Amino acid sequence: MGRTISPTTAQRNLTVLSSDLTSGGADRRNLRHARAVARSSSRSLIAPAALAIIFGCRDTERRPVDQPQKATHAELAVVPKLPRSRDGRVEARELDGEIARGRTPAELIAPLLARAALRGGVDDLIRALALSERWIADAPDDRGAWQARVAALSRVHRFAAAREALARVRTLAGDPADWQELAAVLDEATGEHVRVAGYRADQARLYPSPRTLTHHAANLALAGELDQAIAIVPRAAAIIRDNPASLVSWLLVQWGRLYSAKGEHAAARRFYAEAHARQPLSIEAVTLLAASIHATGGDARSVLAAALADQPAHPELLALAGKRAEATQAWELHVKLLPEAYADHAARFFLADGAPARALTLARANAANRDTAEARALVLEAALAADQPAVACEIAPSLATGVRGHQFLAWRAFGACGRTADAAALAARLGI
Fold this sequence. Notes:
The chain is mostly helical. It is built from 24 helices and no strands. It starts with 23 loop residues before the first helix and ends with a helix.
């Protein structure tokens, strides 16, 4: 399966849940980390979705349809009833077999990235990245090679290089469909979701499928239109026909993120639980489920123990399970190997773990790589925690007119650096 990260080796296997989870100090740190994961879950709406489209997930049925009926409140309040799916562990073993049989970059890159998304393996990402580089060197005029290169670079958040590769795809493309989805993924990942809002809406309207509808919902969520986004969920669920476990799990995770973004963690938890049941090996589903259990006052130890038995070196699991030292080492190793890919998540871990200076360094690196509102908000949070109000105040004006959570952060920053008039104006707007 290829090696993954551990604090001392590059193995992707996990340990059992530590007994210090029951201690008061560990509980408080775990809860802070869980809240950070819960808050950030809405900030990652696109990244996992991107893989589903980039590699072989274009819908085969493309027929225009009429505008749908509005969903009722009752329909929106529960996890939709979905068709049965295949055994998730069997699917994972089949993916392992596909990778074991692969010999060429064309055969390996897509499944390697799919397994990295499923299991969180850093080595799969590194290998896919290297293979994509080799492929374009061997076949510089192969459109498929450049498409795979864009996908691999996007997956590890090397966005500038991905855009350069995308430009090459466009010169080789015979149809806009050869590059539009790749461009949409990049735009959404780098804060340019408005640029592709029309494309997402058109895809959902003209070629409705669970994927296109869910991508459209995610784009609406990025624009703050959460109620509209959630209203799409029953429509997407109703037309599921192709139902492999990993796809159904991915859909449920994306729908759960919409509720997380609204702060409705109990509802999100139900979606994550169903996603985890469909594909127990999904690192995304299990970490979000554990975080939502913590955030809603539950006990996630049994969920984490099972995940840790399978993947004992994943930093998110280690952090949620209270293994702070191991999680710190694992995050540092992840950042060392793929800094752009992990700066954001590592910064949130260090911020929750009481290491604001390290969090600020990583948050700044992440913001330099993609200057989004969420990246700036993370820098501001870390700067306040690190007692650097001047840094926070440099960023605050760009967040003062954003969503409510960002306005609240800007208010805190203005207060910390003595800009009392600005703080008062925001307080009035926020009603605090």
